[in-house]
Design a protein that fits this description.
Distance between the termini: 76 Å
Helix content: 25-40%
Number of helices: 7
Structural class: alpha/beta
Strand order of the largest sheet: 3-2-4-5
Strand content: 5-15%
Oligomer: single chain
Order of helices and strands: HEEEHHHHHEHEE
Number of strands: 6
Largest sheet: 4 strands, mixed
Number of domains: 1
């Protein structure tokens, strides 16, 4: 009697559920993701060999452009529901008798760095487009008679005591302006801060030996 041959079937995996899941996740990330706003001015930082990373949250960045304009940026902290950035803006407004609307506060929370006198912020927030806002960026006053940078730092620390500070200066910025910004930080008892640079590779000699 001949042997009965059992048909061998090639196993088949149905990929349809996985494809559906992929597109579902893709749509979710597209709808929930937010683009990082551009900085107020292009900053070409000097290079260094330091590899210490700067944290993403609880960070204040002071930018200095090549034409010596000073810009300021504070994030909303690790808990965005506290609206720290909006609270800082309202504190600045109270100091200058400016009443910001909820729409203006929300707009401010979504922007990146900025650099202009406090009395012009309301017009800045209501500008029709990004190009108009960019033209209004004249830098935050840091003169001794009107040192608004000091107020931004002071109010930021009032609403977030866990802040880390970083200075991001253009390589062509003049040293006296950088020195003045550092002095403002020290006047606010901020004696520890980071200097943002571009990482430069270190060329080791051919006879270098790791011990």
């Amino acid at each position: 009697m001949g042997k009965i041959k059992i048909a061998v079937k090639t196993p088949r995996i149905d990929m349809t559920p996985m494809v559906d899941l992929f597109f579902l996740l893709l749509v979710f990330f597209i709808l929930t993701a937010t683009f990082r706003p551009e900085e107020a001015a292009p900053i070409k930082t000097p290079t260094s060999t330091s590899q210490t990373p700067i944290i993403d949250g609880n960070l204040v960045t002071i930018l200095i452009s090549k034409d010596d304009k000073v810009f300021f940026n504070v994030d909303n902290g690790t808990d965005s529901t506290q609206h720290i950035r909006g609270k800082v803006l309202q504190a600045i407004g109270s100091n200058y008798q400016i009443k910001f609307t909820p729409k203006e506060i929300k707009k401010f929370e979504g922007l990146a760095s900025f650099g202009l006198p406090a009395k012009k912020i309301q017009s800045f927030l209501n500008a029709p487009d990004a190009k108009t806002r960019e033209a209004m960026q004249e830098g935050i006053p840091i003169d001794s008679l009107d040192n608004q940078l000091m107020m931004w730092i002071r109010f930021a620390r009032t609403y977030n005591t866990n802040l880390t500070f970083a200075i991001k200066g253009d390589g062509a910025a003049n040293y006296p302006v950088v020195k003045k910004v550092i002095a403002v930080l020290q006047d606010n008892n901020v004696n520890k801060f980071n200097l943002t640079t571009d990482l430069k590779a270190v060329e080791l000699p051919a006879d270098f030996i790791i011990k």
